[in-house]
Q: What sequence folds into this?
């Protein structure tokens, strides 16, 4: 088994081997690689078969390295100076490649996308670090006019793919700094989905049961969903790349959300977003919102439910059923009711994974129940995360006993221990 620390490096590595046979995996690529005139070629079928395995085997140590991991791996595989017989040397080359890629000068890009909403603006723009999200820019403004002009050559491909029009959706422009158009897409895509996560959280958490849901066709819970087409542009509106991104078999039949008091909701969105940006656990909560948003974007009920169960695992810091249930129950006024609902969801989760049982007949209720557990924990963290120094302290909080007498007894014992420890 190869060691994780890159030889001769005093800095923490950007990449590490997982618990895999790294010699075997690299050997697969060594066998299918040919080097001629300092250029590498591979057997295409074997290369594409084993590349996902290698991508899984090499772990990124930060979010930034995760975004560039695949580029670092493919570049290192194609380096003729690497024999692909030394796992440590391969990791060292991946680390060097990351240093080279991440030292590039970033440029300004704009992601064009749309949102399944039509109505009053909920924000003019919001910030997430250096990223800016602009809501519904004017169709008569130069920015949107230039972008749509640049998209015109894509119309024949759009027609071929049968992508529906997004004219009745709200346009969104996300301004980012990135290394290249593809990095810009990943950065902006995550940012807008985190924002959508919060928007949907505020709507979904007040959702009631639809007793006629079985009579309707399956549909995603989220009301704020992405439109069918996404393009990356330079600041002048011209295409930064001819590559475009689209949603396969895009469908959205739910009517746009209507607000009885749009200005009040606008203030609420801005208030919650500001709380998130100032939150000491912002990175953790942002990751949860991303998972939450994408799970509830899905029309397929079983996939959506399993995605939401993963959100609960992330929030509670465990994949052990009993511990997950006990931890989530402590966030509710009536833990006994919550415990029984969580137990029922655990059984349904196992049935969905290990048998042919599906949640589709009761999808509306089951997804609402799972969302209720998750949203309670997310709102709790947005409001109260400052009380905890680390996420481990939060998990410790969730492990405290529910019995108030026992809790106060432990509090007195802890106070006695502190006094005893500090005795003269």
A:
């Amino acid at each position: 088994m190869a060691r994780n620390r890159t030889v001769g490096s005093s800095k923490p590595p950007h990449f590490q081997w997982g618990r895999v046979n790294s010699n075997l995996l690299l050997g697969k690529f060594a066998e299918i690689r040919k080097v001629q005139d300092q250029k590498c070629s591979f057997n295409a079928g074997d290369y594409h078969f084993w590349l996902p395995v290698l991508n899984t085997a090499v772990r990124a140590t930060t979010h930034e390295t995760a975004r560039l991991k695949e580029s670092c791996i493919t570049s290192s595989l194609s380096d003729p100076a690497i024999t692909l017989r030394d796992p440590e040397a391969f990791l060292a080359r991946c680390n060097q490649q990351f240093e080279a890629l991440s030292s590039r000068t970033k440029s300004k890009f704009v992601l064009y996308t749309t949102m399944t909403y039509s109505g009053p603006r909920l924000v003019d723009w919001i910030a997430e670090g250096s990223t800016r999200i602009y809501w519904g820019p004017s169709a008569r403004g130069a920015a949107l006019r230039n972008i749509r002009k640049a998209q015109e050559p894509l119309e024949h491909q759009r027609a071929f793919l049968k992508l529906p029009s997004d004219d009745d959706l709200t346009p969104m422009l996300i301004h980012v700094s990135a290394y290249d158009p593809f990095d810009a897409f990943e950065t902006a895509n995550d940012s807008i989905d985190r924002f959508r996560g919060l928007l949907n959280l505020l709507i979904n958490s007040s959702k009631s049961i639809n007793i006629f849901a079985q009579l309707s066709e399956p549909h995603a819970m989220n009301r704020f969903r992405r439109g069918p087409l996404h393009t990356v542009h330079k600041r002048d509106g011209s295409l930064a790349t001819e590559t475009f991104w689209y949603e396969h078999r895009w469908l959205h039949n739910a009517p746009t959300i209507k607000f009885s008091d749009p200005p009040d909701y606008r203030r609420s969105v801005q208030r919650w977003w500001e709380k998130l940006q100032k939150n000491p656990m912002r990175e953790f909560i942002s990751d949860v919102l991303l998972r939450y948003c994408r799970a509830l974007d899905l029309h397929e009920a079983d996939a959506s439910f399993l995605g939401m169960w993963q959100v609960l695992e992330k929030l509670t810091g465990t994949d052990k059923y009993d511990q997950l249930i006990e931890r989530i129950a402590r966030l509710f006024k009536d833990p006994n009711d919550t415990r029984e609902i969580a137990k029922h969801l655990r059984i349904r989760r196992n049935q969905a994974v290990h048998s042919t049982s599906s949640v589709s007949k009761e999808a509306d209720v089951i997804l609402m129940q799972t969302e209720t557990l998750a949203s309670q924990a997310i709102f709790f963290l947005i409001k109260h995360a400052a009380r905890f120094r680390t996420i481990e302290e939060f998990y410790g909080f969730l492990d405290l006993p529910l019995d108030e007498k026992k809790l106060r007894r432990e509090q007195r014992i802890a106070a006695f221990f502190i006094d005893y420890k500090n005795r003269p």
Summary: Strands lie at 15-17, 33-36, 39-42, 58-60, 107-115, 125-128, 131-135, 170-178, 229-233, 245-246. The chain has 15 helices and ten strands. Confidence is low (pLDDT under 50) at residues 1-9. The first helix runs from residue 22 to 32.
